[in-house]
């Protein structure tokens, strides 16, 4: 239904080549994990899909057609530095998604629809474990709590494509497991496409149906900025057979520089 | 930097410079009086008190008005109108210019240029267009402070974290919705801060407008009595204006704190 | 105390333009050198500010009208002496109506003028001639710099002002000059005043001033090339051209001859005028808020002292003009 | 919001409002001239050009000066001095008040109150204290804009992320070092932004000061010819002032971008 | 030499009790890992040691004496939201530490001392893998790169107490291992005291000599804010025997809510 294609995409910041020759097809419904060393360009890849960043060369296509350059409600995002709206409470942050969708002019809900939206928001807030903090402003939340709020906000609108940039990085293993349990059924039921950047190899393998690793393959010691990263591994995790039983240690070892 | 004075010390510290200024004034005034018993430039406090009492409590010989109150009412009405309209215009134009590249290109330069035109110098044209009545006084305030408000707010909007705008769009917001649900509320504390800074200039323009053509108002009275250097009227009036402005400033700051608590978390060190 | 350096301030007005011309053309230096002193002639753009600065002690002398000399420095306790009676307004101040042909038509109109100035005095004098009082009109204080612009707006129908603004205002289509200062000759006088104490200690200062003044206005009066050049320079200094300047000069009664000036000061008309002026000033609280009678501030003229003799603050002294008349400088 | 006009379109959009204003002026001027051939209020452009040429290129008969240039030089010197001193004072006081709770308690209220005093109303006192020379004109600019600068900068300093100050202290910084190595450089872009906003008010105060006591300067000239309503002089002067101010604004903005590239990353959308 | 003691410390934000009855002695030279669920108060604990936060009740003592309330050069910190100075380049950020220490008035170095300080800084920048990015401003760095810069900055001054709030959260396993290899010898050689908050149990056990877990023990369903967290586990990891060989799975399981 909505296939994302990267056709020979390059991204450069000034002199520095960050991504080079990226060719990638992401089928609808894929849960794609992206791993790679710090600074490889994982976030940049997400920004390309979001429409926040334009490729220097090459094209990003949606179902074969040029990409809508503006971020839209079909794509949800959790940024690496989990940014929530500082002027809204926890409830307000989640509710905003519903309000923006339903009403054009004032972007506010009233009466029954509002009650319903609040109900849905509260359920979501409860699910990410912020139930007792619903009236706090983000500045009074801990790092992990802000991250969970950003997740709740991003999934509230059930976008067709969900982009997650190290979404569980600031969470303890217990909370992290809860989040996995929240995301996985959502992805399955709604047939979302999810692209998740993570540094937790276990997580990458555990959740995804496909895994790519970004890294530099060429290196010029004189001008280290001349070459960018591209895709070094591309594993299909649905066919159980390709992943060895003790599998991820191998992949992990190879991703290390 | 880490030495935080207590509540009592804080009040004393705040009072100190005022007391100093008062002492300097009293000495200066006494000296001038010693040289010329009719000196009008630095009248002693007692004289100012007498004059103030008359202005506050006795009807004027000629008009029968309680001068201070009619002046204050006239001026505050103009000020409120001017500040209100400017705030509205500043908000709308500022957000448009800061948020929409097209508006920024179209109006950005215009506003930058307009903000540089000294309004006093083109007064004749303002008079012709807006007449000489109440309107032109309010217009002078608006013309004087709106460009600054617009520029400050548009710079602030343009400096908002891009992530937030993108986030809002991924939540389905149209440009209009981004403006009213994300940008507007976050810019309001800035508007209030900015309005607080603009109280001074607003009074300045008001006084200038009243100096030019008026029959009541704080500025009218000051410039009227400036003709015979009645500092015993001017100084209480200036003090009164300053007090009014300071109260307005306090009120705005309280409103800001009440309405936008999230913006003041940082300050609470 | 005795000084050798003096400051006088002037503002742009047709009757005071000799001062900057004298400074530029070296006449000031000539006379100052003669008495071994130094005189700085400073232009102040804003008339009221120049008087205020004089009152505050920043200047030893200033150009001023008789009424403002009484209400600002004298009422402010600064003992002031008028040493030069330069001219009187003989049509330089006027009332212009855009609606109506005679002064009586002013009834019920809003009148734009500089409140409490000589314009206000002129208006009061005019109103009394048509049996009206200030209650019959509404006064809107309007700054002198903006009164021309104000006169161009629709809601302005009556204006009282002086030259050069008056020339602009009355040339407006449909405007009529209904009353002017030629109806009250000698009542609006343009003076040079100096601080009495300074004068007492330094009579040479006044001698030099008088010398400068009559040298300069002799040039101004000159009908030949030299006179024209001088008037042209003065016109330029006041921001207009020769024609504009001369039309203002026409409505100014200059006392070119020091004898005339001295005899006006010694005559009885001055007393009558000053009595009217102090009456007006008292009624409008200009002598101070606590003053209970118009006698509070004493005015000394050669013929008579008006008001409190103990508190004489404004003096008219013809002696220096007489020296000039007698050629004894 | 995502529609970004290209370079060409941007220039055209920026020009559009100016062209519109020019057209309105020309029509208004022609209309008034048709009604009254001696109208001085809206002189036709041709007349302004003639006058401007005279001001720019012909030496004054009396002094041999080129009027426009002497006026400009006099005014710009005063402006530069005033802005410079204000910037310095604003920086020092602003950082002190924003960073040090003790200074904040002691001076914060004072500055807030001072910023509310309309300088025009106490002009006589300023002139008497500072004389009528160059100093008092510069002082009016300083008195007029410093309190606003101080307040804006101190609010900004107080709003800096606390983490940064703590971090600097853990790196061994004394309060003084925090001020000059962490706060000062981060506040500089804000100072420049603020100074840009203050160019308009600075010119306003300059013109007001020159209107009262001066014998050269742009404001002096405007008020000199105002009595005759010589808009053919006033309007070119106003345009010239606006151009000067706009260029100053541009220069400051360029300096900011050059010197503090890190502060403008965000803007580059 | 410098023992940190918490004596019955409580921290409250308004109504909410965050930490309650914290009693803790941290001996000099300890490498202490702090684990616990998101929002338990781990960052707050660090802020207490830093002097950024005052306890509502109780006292924090240094060698038995009341605590200097101001942050000082004896304590280094990497904040959870790794904050570096935006107005300085990578090199400038690290160099700042040396400059602030050596010169009083201008806080700048010149000539030979400057050259030396730059040398030291560059070595450190190289060690955290930012060698080729030395002249970039933080806004041009990826999340992981900013975090590494914050680490380099914090250890440049070799503080006696180093506080790390999830310092390696945004790093891939490879880079993370490099960072471990950087910190560990430093701690050993300089006899620093390190307090590190982390969500990676393996890391917590691998690096530390002692591990504490923060969690709520009491819970009031009506008023969930009434009770704060306190120390639920306190393991000494130096005595190898107390940690079972397959050890951390047990601890991990118990920390989960
Ligand atoms: N400024 C504040 N005002 C009010 N409450 C606050 C404030 N700062 C923190 N809190 C509250 O204190 C609690 C603990 O916060 P803290 O940041 O210490 O958690 P944490 O253990 O570091 O969590 P994480 O692992 O998510 O970073 C949270 O419930 C938070 O809501
Ligand atoms: N605005 C920018 N200007 C210049 N360079 C940039 C900019 N943004 C990113 N970069 C560079 O692009 C490279 C990739 O950045 P990116 O944020 O995509 O890395 P990442 O893979 O997400 O790393 P991490 O795991 O640390 O978050 C980095 O070397 C960074 O320096
Ligand atoms: Mg990243
Ligand atoms: Mg934390």
Automatic annotation (TrEMBL), chains A, E:
This is NitT/TauT family transport system ATP-binding protein. Pfam families: ABC_tran. InterPro entries: AAA+_ATPase, ABC_transporter-like_ATP-bd, ABC_transporter-like_CS, ABC_transporter_ATP-bind, P-loop_NTPase. PROSITE patterns: ABC_TRANSPORTER_1, ABC_TRANSPORTER_2. One of its GO terms (molecular function) is ATP binding. CDD domains: ABC_NrtD_SsuB_transporters. It comes from the Bacteria. Involved in beta-(1-->2)glucan export. Transmembrane domains (TMD) form a pore in the inner membrane and the ATP-binding domain (NBD) is responsible for energy generation. Belongs to the ABC transporter superfamily. Residues 4-241 form the ABC transporter domain. Keywords: ATP-binding, Nucleotide-binding, Transport.
Automatic annotation (TrEMBL), chains B, D:
It is a multi-pass membrane protein. Residues 72-256 form the ABC transmembrane type-1 domain. Keywords: Cell membrane, Membrane, Transmembrane, Transmembrane helix, Transport. GO terms for biological process: cellular response to sulfur starvation; transmembrane transport. The chain crosses the membrane at residues 12-30, 79-100, 107-132, 194-214, 234-255. SUPFAM superfamilies: MetI-like. One of its GO terms (cellular component) is plasma membrane. Belongs to the binding-protein-dependent transport system permease family. This is NitT/TauT family transport system permease protein. It comes from Bradyrhizobium erythrophlei. The lineage of its organism: Bacteria, Pseudomonadati, Pseudomonadota, Alphaproteobacteria, Hyphomicrobiales.
């Amino acid at each position: 239904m909505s296939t994302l294609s990267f056709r020979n995409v390059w991204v450069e910041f000034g002199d520095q080549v960050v991504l080079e020759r990226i060719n990638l097809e992401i089928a609808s419904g894929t849960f794609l994990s992206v791993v790679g060393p710090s600074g490889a360009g994982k976030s940049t890849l997400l920004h390309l899909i979001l429409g926040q960043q334009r490729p220097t060369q090459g094209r990003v296509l949606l179902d074969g057609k040029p990409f809508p350059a503006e971020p839209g409600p079909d794509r949800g995002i959790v940024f690496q530095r989990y940014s929530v709206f500082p002027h809204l409470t926890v409830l307000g942050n989640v509710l905003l998604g519903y309000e923006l969708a339903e009403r054009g002019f004032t972007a506010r809900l009233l009466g029954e629809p509002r009650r319903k939206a609040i109900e849905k928001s509260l359920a979501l807030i409860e699910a990410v474990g912020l139930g007792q903090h619903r009236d706090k402003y983000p500045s009074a939340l801990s790092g992990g709590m802000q991250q969970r709020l950003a997740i709740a906000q991003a999934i509230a609108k059930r976008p067709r494509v969900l982009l997650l940039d190290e979404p569980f990085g600031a969470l303890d293993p217990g909370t992290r497991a809860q989040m996995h349990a929240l995301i996985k059924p959502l992805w399955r039921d709604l047939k979302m496409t999810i692209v998740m950047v993570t540094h937790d190899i276990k997580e990458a393998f555990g959740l995804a149906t496909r895994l790519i690793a970004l890294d530099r393959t060429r290196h010029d010691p004189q001008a280290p900025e001349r070459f960018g990263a591209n895709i070094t591994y591309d594993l299909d995790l649905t066919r159980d057979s390709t992943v060895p039983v003790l599998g991820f240690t191998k992949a992990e070892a190879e991703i290390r520089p | 930097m880490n030495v935080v004075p207590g509540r009592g010390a804080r009040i004393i510290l705040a009072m100190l410079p005022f007391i100093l200024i008062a002492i300097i004034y009293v000495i200066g005034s006494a000296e001038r009086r010693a040289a010329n018993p009719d000196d009008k430039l630095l009248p002693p406090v007692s004289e100012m008190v007498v004059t103030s009492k008359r202005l506050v409590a006795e009807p004027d010989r000629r008009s029968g008005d309680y001068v201070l109150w009619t002046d204050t009412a006239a001026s505050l009405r103009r000020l409120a109108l001017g500040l209100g309209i400017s705030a509205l215009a500043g908000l709308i134009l500022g957000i448009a210019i800061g948020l929409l590249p097209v508006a920024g290109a179209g109006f950005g330069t215009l506003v930058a240029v307009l903000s540089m035109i000294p309004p006093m110098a083109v007064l004749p044209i303002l008079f012709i267009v807006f007449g000489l009545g109440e309107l032109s006084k309010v217009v002078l305030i608006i013309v004087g402070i709106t460009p600054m408000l617009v520029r400050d707010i548009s710079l602030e909007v343009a400096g908002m974290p891009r992530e937030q705008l993108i986030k809002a769009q991924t939540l389905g917001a149209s440009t209009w919705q981004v403006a009213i649900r994300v940008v507007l509320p976050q810019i309001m504390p800035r508007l209030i801060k900015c309005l607080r800074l603009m109280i001074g200039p607003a009074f300045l323009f008001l006084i200038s407008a009243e100096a030019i053509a008026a029959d009541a108002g704080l500025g009218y009275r000051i410039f009227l009595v400036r003709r015979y250097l009645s500092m015993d009227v001017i100084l209480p009036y200036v003090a009164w204006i300053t007090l009014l402005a300071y109260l307005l400033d306090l009120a705005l700051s309280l409103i800001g704190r009440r309405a936008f608590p999230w913006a003041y978390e940082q300050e609470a060190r | 105390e005795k000084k050798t350096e003096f400051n006088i301030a002037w503002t742009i007005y047709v009757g005071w333009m000799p001062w900057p011309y004298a400074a530029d053309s070296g006449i000031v230096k000539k006379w100052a050198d003669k008495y071994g002193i130094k005189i700085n002639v400073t232009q102040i753009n804003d008339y009221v500010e120049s008087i205020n600065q004089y009152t505050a002690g920043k200047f030893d002398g200033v150009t001023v009208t008789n009424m403002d000399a009484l209400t600002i420095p004298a009422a402010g306790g600064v003992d002031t002496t008028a040493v030069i009676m330069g001219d009187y307004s003989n049509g330089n101040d006027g009332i212009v109506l855009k609606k109506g042909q005679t002064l009586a038509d002013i009834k019920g109109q809003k009148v734009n003028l500089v409140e409490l100035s000589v314009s206000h005095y002129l208006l009061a004098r005019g109103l009394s001639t048509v049996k009206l009082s200030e209650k019959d009109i509404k006064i809107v204080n309007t700054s002198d710099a903006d009164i021309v612009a104000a006169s161009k707006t629709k809601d302005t129908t009556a204006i009282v002002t002086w030259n050069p603004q008056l020339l602009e205002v009355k040339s407006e289509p449909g405007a009529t000059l209904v009353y002017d200062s030629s109806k009250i000759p000698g009542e609006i006088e343009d003076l040079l005043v100096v601080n009495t104490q300074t004068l007492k200690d330094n009579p040479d200062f006044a001698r030099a001033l008088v010398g400068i003044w009559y040298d300069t206005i002799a040039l101004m009066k000159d009908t030949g090339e030299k006179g024209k050049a001088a008037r042209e320079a003065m016109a330029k200094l006041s921001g207009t051209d020769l024609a504009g300047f001369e039309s203002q000069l026409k409505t100014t009664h200059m006392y070119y001859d020091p004898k005339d000036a001295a005899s006006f000061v010694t005559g009885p008309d001055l007393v009558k005028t000053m009595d009217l002026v102090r009456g007006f000033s008292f009624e409008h609280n200009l002598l101070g808020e606590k003053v209970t009678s118009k006698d509070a501030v004493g005015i000394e003229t050669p013929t008579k002292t008006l008001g409190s003799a103990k508190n004489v603050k404004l003096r008219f002294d013809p002696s220096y003009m007489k020296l000039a008349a007698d050629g004894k400088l």
